[in-house]
Amino acid sequence: MKCEVRKIWLSYYLDGGLSLKEKKKLEAHLKTCSFCAQEWKDLGRINSALKYLEPVEVSPDYDLKFEKRLAERLAEREVFSFSFILERLKAGIENLGKIFAPQPVWLRISLGVIIILGGIYFAQRAGEVGLPQVILAKGEVRSSFSGKHWQNLKEGKSLRRGALISTEAGSFLDIELKGLWKLRIKEDSEVKLVSISKRDKRIPTEVLVKKGKVLVDIGKGFKGREFFVETERARAVAYGTRFGVEVDVKNERMWLGVWEGVVGLENEKGSVLVKAGEKSLVFSRERPSRPLALSKEEEGILREIEKIGKIIVSLALQDTPLRVREFLHQPRFYTYGKEPRELQSQLARIIGILNQALRDKDRFLHAEVIKNLEGLVEKYAYAELKVFLGGYYFWLDNLEKAEEIFQEVAEESPAFASFCWCALGIIAEEKGEREAAKEFYHRVIAEYSETLEAKEAQEALRRLE
Question: Model-level pTM?
Answer without folding.
Answer: 0.53
